[in-house]
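Fold this complex.
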Amino acid sequence: MTTVSLDSLNAADEAQFVTALGDIYEHAPWVARAVYAQRPFATLAALNEAMTAAVRAAPREQRLALIKGHPDLAGKAARAGAMTAHSKAEQASAGLDRLTDAEFDEFHRRNDAYREKFGFPFIVCVRRHGKDSILRQFERRLRNDAAAETEAALAEIFRIVALRLDQRVEARDKLPVHGRLSTHVLDTHAGAPAAGVKIELLELSAGGERCLIASAVTNRDGRTDRPLIGGRPLPIGRYELRFHVGDYFARLGTPRADPPFLDVVPVAFAIAEPEAHYHVPLLVTPWSYATYRGS
Amino acid sequence: MTTVSLDSLNAADEAQFVTALGDIYEHAPWVARAVYAQRPFATLAALNEAMTAAVRAAPREQRLALIKGHPDLAGKAARAGAMTAHSKAEQASAGLDRLTDAEFDEFHRRNDAYREKFGFPFIVCVRRHGKDSILRQFERRLRNDAAAETEAALAEIFRIVALRLDQRVEARDKLPVHGRLSTHVLDTHAGAPAAGVKIELLELSAGGERCLIASAVTNRDGRTDRPLIGGRPLPIGRYELRFHVGDYFARLGTPRADPPFLDVVPVAFAIAEPEAHYHVPLLVTPWSYATYRGS
Amino acid sequence: MTTVSLDSLNAADEAQFVTALGDIYEHAPWVARAVYAQRPFATLAALNEAMTAAVRAAPREQRLALIKGHPDLAGKAARAGAMTAHSKAEQASAGLDRLTDAEFDEFHRRNDAYREKFGFPFIVCVRRHGKDSILRQFERRLRNDAAAETEAALAEIFRIVALRLDQRVEARDKLPVHGRLSTHVLDTHAGAPAAGVKIELLELSAGGERCLIASAVTNRDGRTDRPLIGGRPLPIGRYELRFHVGDYFARLGTPRADPPFLDVVPVAFAIAEPEAHYHVPLLVTPWSYATYRGS
Amino acid sequence: MTTVSLDSLNAADEAQFVTALGDIYEHAPWVARAVYAQRPFATLAALNEAMTAAVRAAPREQRLALIKGHPDLAGKAARAGAMTAHSKAEQASAGLDRLTDAEFDEFHRRNDAYREKFGFPFIVCVRRHGKDSILRQFERRLRNDAAAETEAALAEIFRIVALRLDQRVEARDKLPVHGRLSTHVLDTHAGAPAAGVKIELLELSAGGERCLIASAVTNRDGRTDRPLIGGRPLPIGRYELRFHVGDYFARLGTPRADPPFLDVVPVAFAIAEPEAHYHVPLLVTPWSYATYRGS
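Structure:
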């Protein structure tokens, strides 16, 4: 993806500015144009707020047109290739490109019901959700009235835009759009960090699917070199961490039963706040363990 | 199953005694006959020890005949109906009657290899094992030499007999042939036992099967009214307890995230000692939990 | 102490009955006399309820006289030897006989203020309280109005009486007047109960005093043979359990640092419910521990 | 304290160099002089190693003279003011300046016994020890033979020197002479870091003294802004952390008993490795807590 620095945006002429940021709001280069005169922007946050304010200040019809310019989620557009590259990448992230035919039909039905009721497509910042969570969003938002739902659609657009800006523009500040999932394994039998423990992270779905989305091995400090999820929002949903402590204690030669009381320790939990830091550590001996939402 | 009291055995004449206990050792009423003269037996343990001693004191050929009198495990006998009722019920308990054709073939192959090497059938006290554990027994014992394996076969026969005696004979003492799996849920958020928590116990197999073998709801003291497994040996194998704490905290109205950080808490562990007490409790808040092998 | 069976009370004539129970209510044999006609009592609870009802049914003046018949707590009576034997033993239990001169003066002042305001002595079931807790009771109850405080004094008398009845009368049922403090040490390094751990229980006071009130050594199950406090109400107050786990792990030869990270583990907690069961266990390795109010 | 940069040492002439580092080894400027020719030193570690090597390479008599040049620990020197400023500050850190007369006599006796046996003063890097730990050192090292003890004395001198160098010389690298004691309070009732928890750190001595050496309040992340001990070796000894969680939960309005089950949570532990990181966190609800040596 091409990136651009905030400094060069501040130095750009209008045409360059709109070329660089015109697609940040879907099919709405007018938003970039509207904030051009406010340069220079001291921070990325200031640029983002200016664009948000421009949308809020636009006539109601223009805001509605902005909403209507978004593609149907998992709708015909997804299959017909009419989405912008941005939207395509974002929708893939929630597994929407891996829908079964039955799920595709279900999404389609809800999407149609939504469009029927509100007159515009269902918009959600999909990078913040797993598949189950998006389905729940449909259910909840279908109950809204038109005013509340217009506001909800705009709020989602602002989230989508913040993520796009954060990826597109290099600046000294970052927008608070990313979460982080980390872990730590402490061997309370030896009183030391547990190094070399294999960890898997699975995304669970209500239908019983279990999808491996990350794996890592703990380093000397009992941590993983990189967050299990980082540099993006954490998709709302259910997860399972699997800690392979049986192999770890076997390597250390720790006395154990046969078969060992603990082998792979599963920790199932849900993420509800995409922009938060979830720290889910494990304190473990061959006979006991504890876990918690840490910080 | 017909039971008999130790008192009436002590008062029986030889024919009655042998009728009552002749089938305790498979196809070997001579063992019962051999101990008849030692009546009265003060305890069931004394009766069991006397029978064990009689087997140990018998000529080598008679001990070998006793071993050879046992049915092939999961072998043709299982399908041909030639097993004693005892052996049938015992083998069912390890899921040996639910073998797939491929597994049946595998058991058959190992059984043949075993019989080929040792000249007698593979004997194991199946009530002490899950399916995976029996396969591991095959592997280990096939490496024995004939002397060690004859001893191993006898040890298994003594375990089988102790279980049969414990079921057949009513006495003031019990033979130490039973284990127990229990749990306890403590709500460390409220500082009280967690009542009404649904708990499921699954037996896991190496092949990925998950078989629900017990379920319960915690009582006012956070315990289950009965052990999750009790009154029998605990089959060696891997298990998963599933604690439905999400529903529990929802009923209490405890503040939680949406979706809740913890919903169903899985605790995976292995049982290695069939005659032991395994206590696997859960200390839980909406944000943390701990578990351990307790007592 | 002389005890009497409920059966013999049910069979007694009035003189015997009043001799046996006349002093249960302080200087008020009329209560025993009032319930004599209701014999037989099926349970001790029924006898206790009948006596409570008799007090409630008595004229207001008689109830007031009952209240006034109680000795001053820690007052001159305590030193002058005018208390009944019952009251003396009960007051000793809260350490009231070990008051320093300054504390004696303080109690005296509060007692006088109380008597000044309400016209009767301050009554509290001292076996349910530590010294600090009684001082807090003074503070709280001095703020009551006369009606509320008369009720409070009666409630305390009923508690005192229930304890006396429970000690005096042998019956199939027990009155729910006793609490229990127990513990359990689990070695989660070895996956087994910790046997042979020395445990001390100290009562702490706001003034910084630390009074050893019980000590025990864990048995094979990691428990103490008897509750640390049992067969009586648990005095409201602050306590510290001290678990000598350093010596325990040293005996086992568990690898540790020098000096060991954990030696004597102090667990400080308060008891607020005298009739409850407090279970305060320790899960411990040489490098970690957990404790909680269990059940 | 005057510091000097490694760069300026590398650029210094011999007189300047010896002036700057001549007192790093007690009364032994010859060590600085011996390494002068090896300039430039790429790192502080290289300088330290060079000085160590110079001592090791010196004639036996010179090494012995170096050892003999050190002051008696807590000896007459301490009171007569004959110690270098360095030694004075270091000895104060272990509380050696706060010895009672009895303790002073005891130290004196041991010191004399040591000097009697080995012919040189007892040397220990006092910043790595509490008072009890130094006494234990005396006991252990008095049992050594002369060769082992000469080596032990040199090892302590190298530790003393490394600390002096680390304080005196500014360089890009630091010598690994510092430890760190940190903590973290996690409220597992709320699933969040516990902010505003008052924490006290006490140093305990075998004689029962309890000396407050640090206090702090947790920040928004449940941590303290600075380590409880940092920027120096951790003195070997016993400590108690006191976490004021009662006040914390009261401020939050968390439902609790009266008095609250937990108020001030004491965590007693020992430090055995002066250069290590000790992380001693608390996971706490109003009814439970856990602690461990973390990382």
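Residues 146-168 of chain C form the longest helix (23 residues).
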